[in-house]
Amino acid sequence: MTDPFSLELLTNYLLVSAALFALGMLGFIARRNLIVMFLSAEMMLQGVALSLVAFGRYHGNWSGQVFTIVILTVAACEASIAMALVVVLFNRRSSLDVTLWQDVREAGVAGTELADEEAEAAPLSTADGIETYPHLTPAGVEPAHPIQPWTERRR
C-alpha cells in the first residue's frame, strides 16, 4: 500500500498555508484596530499550524500534529491575554485604535508616522471617572433577580 500523501499534495498544503500567513501579515500591518490585528495574528498562526501538520503527514510521523496542538494551547492563552488588553484599552481610551498606545513606548524610541495621526484617531469624548469592570458574584451567593412569572406559578 502506497501513501497517498505525495509531494504535490504537500505543495498544495504549503501554498494554502503561505496564503493564510500572507493574508494574516497583510491584515496585521494594514489595520489599526486591535481586534482585527489579533485576528490577523491568529490567521498567521493557523497558516504555520497547517504547514506543520502537512510536513508531519508527509514525513509519516506525528511530530507536526503534536507541535500544532502545543501551539494551539499557547494560542488559547494568548487569546485570553489579548482580549484582556483589548478590554483595558477600550475602558481607558474608548477606542480600539493602536495609535492611542503610543505613550507606552520606551523612552528614546522614535515614533512612527502613525503617532502623528494620533489626533485623528482620538475618540471624540473620553470617559471621565473611575474605571468600572464587571465583577463576578461570590461563590455560594445567589444574585438578586426578579421573580419570573413562570416560577410564581410553581409556588
TrEMBL record:
In alphabetical order, the GO MF annotations are: NADH dehydrogenase (quinone) (non-electrogenic) activity
Give the Enzyme Commission number. 7.1.1.-
- What HAMAP family does this protein's entry cite? NDH1_NuoK (MF_01456)
Specify the protein name: NADH-quinone oxidoreductase subunit K
Gene name of the record: nuoK
User: What UniProt keywords apply to this chain's record, in alphabetical order?
Assistant: Cell membrane, Membrane, NAD, Oxidoreductase, Quinone, Translocase, Transmembrane, Transmembrane helix, Transport, Ubiquinone
Q: Which family does the UniProt entry place this protein in?
A: Belongs to the complex I subunit 4L family.
What is the top EC class of this enzyme, as a single word?
A: translocase
Its biological function? NDH-1 shuttles electrons from NADH, via FMN and iron-sulfur (Fe-S) centers, to quinones in the respiratory chain. The immediate electron acceptor for the enzyme in this species is believed to be ubiquinone. Couples the redox reaction to proton translocation (for every two electrons transferred, four hydrogen ions are translocated across the cytoplasmic membrane), and thus conserves the redox energy in a proton gradient.
Q: Where does the UniProt annotation locate this protein?
A: Cell membrane; Membrane
Q: Source species, please?
A: Paludisphaera mucosa
The transmembrane segments are 12-29, 36-55, 67-90
Residue numbers spanned by region Disordered: 133-155
From the record, what ranges are coiled-coil?
A: none
Catalysed transformations (reactions): a quinone + NADH + 5 H(+)(in) = a quinol + NAD(+) + 4 H(+)(out)
Subunit: NDH-1 is composed of 14 different subunits. Subunits NuoA, H, J, K, L, M, N constitute the membrane sector of the complex.
